[in-house]
């Protein structure tokens, strides 16, 4: 079986504390990566970004957590199937240049992001 998760996102209440913690614990690098007109903090290695670091917004009552991203071929179908199986949508669809994502919670409350790559022509 192929690796089921292709990307990870750390949701944190304090970006600098998390950056320092993972750098000191594992030697991981967090770099500010250009994303359109802004930069976003991402875990990177020699092959490029492999994970994101997202600052929780003020007033967001969710606990800091890691969210794995699972690749799907059809986001709409995957979300329909997930909700049929008891999942709930935590974050509605967001379309980005590289693809689209919907964040769900499984029936027990575990969070996972479903990701569909954008067509190759729109990513270039």
Describe this structure in words.
It is a single chain. The chain is an alpha+beta fold and 124 residues long. The protein contains three helices and eight strands; from the N terminus they run βαββββαβββα. An eight-stranded mixed beta sheet has the order 2-3-4-1-5-8-7-6, covered by helices on one side.
Could you write a compact summary of the structure shown?
The protein has 124 residues and is α+β, with helices and mostly antiparallel strands. 21% of the residues lie in helices and 49% in strands. The protein has an eight-stranded mixed β-sheet, covered by helices on one side.
Give the tags.
single chain; 124 residues; alpha+beta; 3 helices; 49% strand
Per-chain topology:
Elements: E1 5-12, H1 15-26, E2 29-35, E3 38-45, E4 48-55, E5 65-71, H2 75-84, E6 88-96, E7 99-105, E8 111-117, H3 120-123
Parallel strand pairs: 1-4, 5-8
Antiparallel strand pairs: 1-5, 2-3, 3-4, 6-7, 7-8
What's the average pLDDT?
91
Model regions low in confidence, pLDDT < 50 over at least 5 residues:
none
How many strands, which pairing sense, and closed or not: the largest β-sheet?
Answer: 8 strands, mixed
CA-to-CA gap between the ends? 29 Å
As a percent range, the share of helical residues equals 10-25%
For this entry, what is the oligomeric state of its chains?
single chain
Number of helices: 3
Structural class: alpha+beta
Q: Give the DSSP E fraction (strand runs of 2 or more residues).
A: over 45%
User: What shape does the CA trace take?
Assistant: globular
- What does the radius of gyration come to? 15 Å
């Amino acid at each position: 079986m192929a690796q089921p998760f292709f990307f990870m996102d750390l949701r944190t209440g304090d970006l600098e504390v998390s950056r320092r913690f993972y750098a000191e614990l594992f030697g991981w690098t967090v770099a500010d990566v250009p994303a359109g007109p802004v930069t976003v903090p991402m875990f990177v290695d020699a092959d490029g970004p492999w994970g994101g670091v997202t600052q929780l917004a003020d007033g967001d009552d969710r606990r800091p957590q890691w969210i794995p991203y699972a690749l799907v071929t059809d986001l709409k179908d995957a979300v329909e199937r997930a909700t049929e199986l008891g999942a709930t949508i935590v974050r509605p669809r967001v379309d980005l240049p590289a693809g689209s994502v919907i964040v769900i919670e499984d029936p027990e409350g575990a969070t996972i992001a479903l990701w569909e790559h954008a067509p190759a022509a729109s990513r270039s």
